[in-house]
């Protein structure tokens, strides 16, 4: 059934004054650009950590104890603070201390030069 033109809704647009400059938005607030190389390096480290935790705990992913290694948290600490924090996190691991220390040394080596990701990275 066709409706009558008088009952249809109409939308009307008003043309703005062409002499005014358009309002500009700051694009920096809308998008954030991260350094792709740093993101890839961080992803590689996180995948390495995941694989090492499987070896340290000799179990499947679902069976690994609640353990979260926060790279940004480690980056805020000094060298000895990083080592101490990782030792605290790995207390439940039943592997010998040497094996745990190998993991810790490997992780500390990999995160050297990495930057925190709490905000946008700048080149």
TrEMBL record:
The keyword Transport does not apply. GO terms for biological process: innate immune response. Residues 1-20 are annotated as: Disordered. It comes from the Eukaryota. One of its GO terms (cellular component) is cytoplasm. Residues 1-11 have a biased composition (Polar residues). InterPro entries: CPI-17, CPI-17_sf. One of its GO terms (molecular function) is protein serine/threonine phosphatase inhibitor activity. SUPFAM superfamilies: Myosin phosphatase inhibitor 17kDa protein, CPI-17. Signal peptide: none annotated. Keywords: Phosphoprotein, Protein phosphatase inhibitor. Belongs to the PP1 inhibitor family. This is Protein phosphatase 1 regulatory subunit 14B isoform X1. It comes from Gymnodraco acuticeps (Antarctic dragonfish). The gene is zgc:162989.
